[in-house]
Design a protein that fits this description.
heterodimer, A: Aspartate Aminotransferase, domain 2, 2 domains, seven-stranded mixed β-sheet, four-stranded antiparallel β-sheet, 13 strands, about 35% helix, globular, B: alpha/beta, Aspartate Aminotransferase, domain 2, Aspartate Aminotransferase, domain 1
């Protein structure tokens, strides 16, 4: 077997040294009637060529995003990632290293995490950021738990513009906690909900996504003010980090925790994972923040170096008193994010964001010119919601048959809500060309005809 | 002018200078320093060639960013050099033995990397029409089948993002199952030797943690479990047990423990971090477990990436199968169906909710399946046998010099030593570990598990050759002899040859500096 260096001779010699006659003597603690000889229901080993053939065939059954005009967003976005990024994260020293528990020989990982944290803090307009969460959705749920710890209150008010699956993750963990509750507002495609009316003295946090799941940009300032008046925290969520290149940072709008999905920078679509959760907050809440953090220090010779720090918040020290149970996070995806961000710089991100926004405007104008198609959002970044004169699921399936992946039917995530049946969220990025937009328009016209 | 007959000297000449002179740069040949990107980068460039956007009227509704994004950039060659230099300050499996106990640092096959990057997997959106991603659902289903076959279980929740997330998933399924029975229980039993994530997870979802003491031989005493169950009768929701446990031992009475738990109406959660020891040798389902997460990034070789991403699917017994979270794939006679919201549920399906957006760590699934198919059932069993053989080879190579807390008996895939052998040497477990760094090894897991003093937990994995193990054993023997002979200069202040000496972790925690800040506005290049 190509991955196993021991030969049969090695094995025999090693067993002799250990003083056993057969390997099974090392497994005698397993009750005899529970030991198995082999798993006969599974196939035997395969060559590299065979495995490659098999999985390549499976991959070929899928329609890759790049194979056709592609406008699917709703929490994951197709962007161009420079080839440098994927090359660098595949360097053995990054790829095959563990969590940096021994800082003397993991300064590469640690320094890159320190740089990542600085980038995330700067982008979100916050004081401090952690070394990443699993993804945006689990990060958002952790933000709610953190708010409960900070405020010692347990009611989360959740905007109807939050990604429905993010909301489900929060509701799932809240349901486990004695005394915790969630107030989830109904779906809010236009961004007109009155969330201020829901905030009261029992409120621990308000969770608002901007751009919303429907693409609408939300003014966070009045929400932050009302939340703070009731000693509640504003948790600002984003699923498209590129938007931060063009819209006001949540920190500047008064958010207390900023959390979101970082996939767009540096990471492929990967059918939903692995992604990278970005998590930032105010200095004063630092010790309630979940997750790993990297900090600067010096070594015995006075040289600058970096270590994992504030571990007294964490599970391996605090056990059942920890701020979170998170251990492994999303290190390599954070590195990919950081490298791509380093190639872009602040200027590049802004430019990239402008291209995204412009393409979305072109697409919105082209689609809304079709009879019966309405763009719902007044202000948006690179994603918006359209209303079509037919069941959105049928329209998306028909578009796919016509070679266009046209977006996500809202009812796929929010079924059984009649007023959402005809809605589709549509995203445009720098990867879309004018030909893509023309193809979408032509296909949609045909499907609706 | 005649030609110079004295060319370049081709052999060292003169006396060899023992003291190495300081260098101007602070670099030492291949050992190079690297400033922060904020100290090197340019504030007024972009290292990606992007089209100039045409003039247009934004539709941002007054939400435009008012401030600059103060982040510097590198051109491509500068970025390459920055990250390559950083990478060279890292230890990695590809560079040497990485014997971190409970972390299973095995070889990461590159075939898996290649396949995970096929456009049909990597360039695939989680919410594109189901009809356009049938190969992805097929892959997830096939991996599920392998996981169920290897563990002898009935269902698997694929979406958890890492081990601790898997624990959370399993424990939430247990809570849901109790709720479905109309019961509310408040206590989770956790042995003292457990990973920190176990009690943290139980507490996270609202349980009170009650510790079960370890026996003198490092295993869990069924009587101690029975006592706790009796003391908290009707209140215990589950036991969370790691098996093989963190002392590197298989719990010999695991079946009795499972029976006790089930008789008390509770569930048996198994931490699967150490599954690499028993793949193809025993099936956890046969041992009575109800839920177990599998660290795909340990047992099934997906790279650790300096701290993730991981992947933590949870296998479930028949009793817990109905409570698996959304989304899941339902097999019908002719097809696979994605079930991703409550409106699609069939009778009996009672998911507790959702762990994460989308379907889980697909990129890791591709790698894990490639690993499994490559090994086959026979290769997986061989890998576990080799992992256990390697650990025992280290054990017998060191047991006369180092101290085994539970006697000279076989271990599973990792061997646990305590610090008794360092008594009166003045050398601590930490010193010993740091001296290993100078010898070119990543240290073992230290001071864990908490049940023995100065723990050193060594897990070589099946990826090491006999020659590699021999050198490792010889190196550790040499270190032990130095310590015992009072030659402690190798230990005090070690490491001496790493990119950094010991770092001041206390200072880092006392006054945390978690990001770069400009020294003063004038020192920053104008933007």
């Amino acid at each position: 077997m190509r991955y196993l260096p021991l030969s049969d001779n090695d094995r025999a010699a090693m067993m002799a040294q250990i003083g056993i006659d057969g390997i099974d003597e090392l497994f005698t603690d397993i009750p005899a009637d529970k030991r198995i000889k082999a798993i006969e229901s599974l196939p035997l080993r395969k060559t590299e060529l065979e495995v490659e053939r098999l999985l390549t065939r499976m991959a070929a059954k899928n329609s890759a995003a790049g194979d056709q005009p592609f406008f699917v967003g709703a929490g994951a976005y197709k962007h161009h990632v420079p080839a440098t990024v994927d090359h660098l994260i595949q360097r053995s020293e990054f790829l095959t290293s563990y969590t940096p528990y021994q800082p003397e020989i993991t300064q590469g990982t640690l320094q890159s995490l320190f740089e990542f944290q600085t980038q995330v803090a700067q982008l979100t307009g916050m004081d401090v950021a952690n070394a990443s969460m699993y993804d945006g959705s689990t990060g958002t749920a952790e933000a709610v738990l953190m708010a409960h710890r900070v405020t010692r209150k347990k009611k989360a008010v959740i905007s109807g513009g939050l990604h429905p699956q993010y909301r489900e993750v929060i509701e799932g963990i809240s349901a486990q906690l004695p005394g915790a509750s969630t107030v989830s507002l109904p779906a809010d495609p236009y961004g007109t909900e009155d969330i201020l009316a829901q905030i009261d003295d029992d409120t621990s946090c308000v969770v608002v996504q901007s751009p919303s799941f429907y693409g609408q940009l939300i003014d966070l300032k009045p929400i932050a003010e009302k939340a703070h008046a009731h000693k509640a925290l504003l948790i600002a969520v984003f699923t498209e980090v590129v938007s931060l290149g063009l819209i006001e940072s949540p920190g500047a709008q008064g958010a207390d925790i900023v959390v979101g999905e970082g996939q767009s920078i540096g990471n492929a679509l990967n059918f939903g994972g692995p992604y990278v959760g970005l998590f930032a907050t105010r200095q004063k809440y630092l010790r309630n923040m979940p997750g790993r953090v990297c900090g600067e220090t010096v070594d015995a010779e006075g040289k600058r170096g970096f270590v994992l720090t504030l571990s007294t918040r964490e599970q391996h020290i605090r056990r059942d008193k920890a701020t979170s149970n998170i251990c492994t996070n999303s290190g390599l995806c954070a590195l990919a994010f950081s490298i791509h961000m380093t190639l872009l710089g602040g200027l590049g991100l802004k430019k990239l964001a402008r291209i995204n926004h412009h393409n979305a405007i072109k697409l919105a104008d082209a689609l809304s010119a079709i009879d019966g198609v309405e763009v719902l959002n007044s202000a948006f970044f690179n994603e918006f919601t359209i209303k079509v004169p037919a069941d959105a699921n049928d329209v998306i399936e028909a578009l796919a048959v016509n070679g266009v992946l046209g977006g996500v039917p809202v009812s796929r995530l929010l079924p059984d809500t009649p007023e959402l049946t005809n809605l589709i969220t549509v995203a445009a990025t720098e990867t879309n060309t004018q030909e893509d937009i023309d193809a979408y328009v032509a296909a949609l016209k045909e499907v609706l005809a | 002018m005649s030609m110079n007959t004295q060319g370049r000297p081709s052999a060292p000449s003169g006396t060899v200078q023992i003291e190495k002179p300081a260098t101007f740069t602070g670099n030492r040949a291949l050992d190079m320093e690297e400033p922060l990107l904020f100290e090197l980068g340019h504030w007024n460039i972009c290292g990606v060639d992007l089209d100039e956007p045409e003039e247009f009227t934004p539709r941002l509704g007054g939400h435009e960013r008012q401030s600059d994004i103060a982040l510097p950039a590198f051109t491509e060659p500068e970025a390459m050099r920055h990250y390559v230099r950083l990478s060279r300050m890292n230890y990695a499996i590809d560079a040497g033995l990485y014997p971190l106990g409970s972390c299973t640092m095995k070889h990461n096959p590159r075939l898996n990397e290649k396949l995970s990057r096929l456009a049909g997997f990597a360039d695939l959106h989680p919410l594109q029409p189901v009809s356009t991603a049938s190969g992805a659902y097929e892959l997830i289903d096939m991996l599920s089948e392998w996981l169920m076959q290897l563990t002898g279980t009935s269902a698997v929740a694929m979406s958890p993002k890492a081990g601790a997330h898997g624990e959370q998933c399993g424990m939430m399924a247990i809570k849901q199952a109790l709720k479905a029975r109309g019961e509310q229980r408040s206590i989770v039993l956790v042995p003292e030797s457990a990973h920190g994530t176990n009690p943290a997870t139980a507490a996270l979802i609202g349980y009170k943690v009650v510790a079960v003491p370890a026996r003198d031989d490092g295993t869990v005493d069924p009587q101690a479990v029975a006592d706790k169950l009796k003391e908290h009768e009707g209140e215990v929701a589950a036991l969370m047990l790691t098996n093989p446990n963190t002392c590197g031992l298989f719990e010999p009475q695991v079946v009795e423990i499972a029976n006790l738990i089930h008789e008390a109406g509770a569930y048996f959660y198994c931490d699967g971090a150490n599954f690499n020891a028993i793949v193809g040798k025993a099936r956890p389902g046969d041992l009575g477990i109800d839920a177990m997460h599998i660290n795909i990034h340990k047992t099934f070789s997906t790279p650790h990436g300096g701290g993730g991403p991981g992947s933590g699917p949870v296998v479930l017994s028949e009793r817990l199968a109905p409570f698996a979270p959304l989304p899941f794939i339902r097999r019908t006679e002719k097809d696979l169906e994605l079930v991703e919201n409550a409106s699609q549920l069939a009778e009996g399906e009672q998911p507790f909710g959702r762990m994460t957006a989308f379907h889980g760590q697909m990129g890791m699934f591709v790698r894990a399946l490639a690993y499994m198919l490559s090994h086959g059932a026979d290769g997986l069993q061989q890998a576990s046998e080799d992992a256990v053989l390697n650990a025992n080879y280290i054990r017998v190579g060191l047991q006369d010099l180092m101290s085994l807390p539970f006697g000279k008996k076989p271990c599973m895939h990792e061997v646990l030593f305590d610090d008794t052998f360092l008594k009166d040497t003045g050398v601590t477990t930490l010193d010993f570990a740091k001296a290993m760094i100078d010898e070119g090894y990543h240290p073992m897991t230290m001071y864990f598990p908490l049940v023995v003093h100065g723990a050193m937990l060594i897990e070589p994995t099946e990826s090491e050759s006999r020659a590699s193990l021999d050198l490792f054993v010889a190196t550790l023997r040499d270190l032990v002899m130095s310590a015992k002979q009072g030659n402690t200069s190798r230990f005090e202040g070690a490491p001496f040859h790493a990119p950094r000496r010991r770092l001041d972790e206390t200072a880092a925690a006392r006054k945390p500096v978690l990001k770069w800040t400009a020294p003063s506005p004038t020192e920053v290049e104008p933007r």
